[in-house]
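DM between two lab members

TW: hey, do you still have the Glycoside hydrolase family 3 protein entry open?
JB: yeah, one sec
JB: this one, 975 aa:
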Amino acid sequence: MSLSTKAVAAVAATALTLGLCAAPARAAYEHPFRDPSLPLSQRVDDLLGRLTRAEKISWLHQYQPAVERLGIGLFKTGTEALHGVAWSTDIDDGGNVVTARGTVFPQAVGLASTWDPALIKKVGTAVGEEARGYHSENPRVWGLQLWAPVVNLLRDPRWGRNEEGYSEDPLLTGAISTAYGSGIQGDDPDHLRAAPVLKHFMANNNEIRRDTTSSSLRPRVLNEYEIPAFRTALEAGAATGVMTAYNLVNGRPATVTDLTSTVDAWSDRRLFNVSDAGGPNNLVGSQAYFATRAEAAAAVVKAGVSSFTVDNTDGAPTAAAVGEALARGLLTEADLDEAVRDILHIRFRLGEFDRDGGPYGRITKAVVDSPAHRALARRTAADAAVLLKNSSATLPISPGTKVAVVGPLADTLYTDWYSGSLPYRVTPLDGIRERAAGTVSAEGVDRIALKSGGRYLTAGTGAGADLRLSSTTAGATEQFDVFDWGQGVVTLRSVANGRYVSRANWSTLVNSQEQPTGWFVQEQFRLEAQADGTTLLRYAGYETAQDWFGPNVYVKAAADGTLSLTVAADATRFETETVRSGVDEAVAAAKKADVAVVVVGSMPFINGREDHDRTDLGLAEGQRELVEAVHAANPNTVVILENSYPTTIDALQRKVPAILWTTHAGAETGHALADLLYGDANPAGRLTQTWPRQGTPLPGILDYDIITTGATYLYSTADPLYAFGHGLSYTTFGYQGLKVVPKDGGHEVSVRVTNTGTRAGDEVVQLYTHQHASRVKQPVKQLRGFQRVHLAPGQARTVTFPLRTADLALWDVTRGRFAVETSTHDVLVGSSSERIRQRATVRVTGERIGARDLTRTTRAADFDDHSGAELVDETTVRGDAVGASAGEWISFEDVDSGSGVTGVRLGVAATAASSVEVRLGSPTGTLAGTVPVAATGGVYSWATAQAPVQGVRGRQDVYLVFKGGLRIRDVTFTH
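TW: and the structure you got?
JB:
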């Protein structure tokens, strides 16, 4: 903080002490931009006019340097706050990001599982307050621009970052993100508690080659599915910008995808958009989209991105690139000023230039981990949990029942990449022990010792030390607990100090980590059984370990016992001694109890996370076997599944009587689970994703066309294990008297819901629709509204939903706009997408989408169907085209060619000669003509190719079949 800033703060403090309520005279302000009584635009203009060109350029970097001559301090973009304040991009003395130690709420997918926007707004408020609290202590480290929430749709359950998103449905995602963002920024009309930024714009739902893959979004998927997830919060004023994604969208890097005509237009306030970390450098690096950083920088700014998240704290490369872009005329001074205006609007709204910091400027560190926030975390964790199964009223557990709590997650809590540190921990075992005296427990994991040449692998004590072959007896320092995370990957926890074995110094092993963690998760291993009965210990730190280290991923012990990594043929062969069987220990505990609670699930740094998609949806094999053994020993078994995504647990669903799902839910997990298990809280969480059955085929993770592939509950016809919206309760609910009446440009839907059971509980009432007749493929059903309502036993309430006719619109590719078709719609109300309790039909009067007229130039991207074709970039700035290879096709349905056309003209770009067939009725139907395509000189070199056609008359479907690789921009039939 500069001297002048301190002086201003002192004056403000004195004024408050004296009780001076009136606004100070204008002359008291050093500069007009400091005067909060002036309009925001005037204050912004004043400060902008005082900045030099160099200062303005420097502010485009994520670390906006101080301007001491104006008393302005450093402003740092980006504090991670996905489900609590997590960490800052600032680096500590040890080279690590600075991590918060405050309230950690359930992971984002768990927040959405509450289906309770009012509650999530309270969570957002707590997060915004804690961000302010940290900022008050160290504004350099803890910036008030928060990079949250993530609103990428959970289209594919294998996505590594599934835990970060909310739902596979855009309406639910929009509602929860709006609530969270609203809470973060507060309700003051002029000031922000903190500034939420939506991540990651857009179509970011795969980690494999995430910076070079392109998400192909046909117009219907783009406008009906992807855009609403972002648009909702922005239109509601619940976000202050977006972060661009790493991936390409329709062939163009998201970092330079136009935000000015999309995102910026969806908000009535000025936005401050940022790039993802390293995104600008990818443009000239892995994506090779531009030749120079100056060209890339110009494109970034012109696209509407005002902050380069790149090069850590070093803003010099960004300043040099932007400066060169200005010198070369790639950017103008006006472009620069517009970007800085975006920044200033948010900095002013954060109260930075007000004497007292604005209405939120008095929040202190005392709010962090407050009793109120702890209570909110406990409630949220309970409300987010989903009761998947509860046969024979296994739950809730009666008081006085003897309980065994077993499983690898029974007595631990894990954080994830976007978690803060836990200030305290209440594990599932802790929570249940508070309720049930005499609780027995067992982790249910094998304890082993590894021996070679008469010596055991020995670990250090305390903070840990390098492992080595040393002792000739197997005491505590020679024993390791083996945690199975599936697909052969295990972690080894040293009995000597309770810490996990990790690879250190890129070679040796050390028992040093409190939990598996870090960008490169060094705590993963495989115990590979050999034909001679021995075991090889293989480092499996990440999926591409062999790509990084070649074949040197096996552990070798030298003659002196020190360890290194080598190839399999040279690896040490260990004898494995089982000191204790985890299954036997768990079974013994289960036999002593009336109820066995088995806590299984995932390790967030291992089972799918940023940069690593899942390749398997199953529960770890060893964990499944543990549950089955415990259930065989005690049929009264409850499974708590603690993870962040759909899991194929078909066998367990058939066998065990009760299954409760929770995300990794923070420090209060154990209390929340105990509240649920003992009935103090009644489960009411609902799934926000479809859980597929084992063996259900899934589309390729890079295929974003949910319409063609039949993905998500919207278009899938497969029988799920658990449907979208599924969740049970300890009570029952009846639905009566569904009414659909015209009102206010649509209909009002109402239904009476009654608690027909003996316990108070929440029901999540869900409204869906399905359109009967349509020009295009319609969703099987689509969520149109939901309400979580609390009802006492016997209590009834009429739940009402607005159903606007405009909300039933589809994206009409024939005209490039939304249209409501005249059709009958099913109106469906129930407790999940599959459990519909009341239904009605309503006739909606709209319009009939007419036949296509291809004699008018039609964008190729506006096709009706396709096979293999992808959307690609027409130019590096804007526009979509279609790219395809030999045998792939696009179709235009119900084309009315009247009395006939005689020719076809295509806008094409090709690097080699090729051709396109025009076929009628199907991709193998009547050949109407073949258009030869000459090489045009490149994918952005557009030319016209044409040919005669015959038999094209009346109304029929037209197919363009690619006979080689090329791009088509548009198609026109000619007479």
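TW: got it. The first strand starts at residue 63 and ends at 64. The first helix runs from residue 3 to 17.
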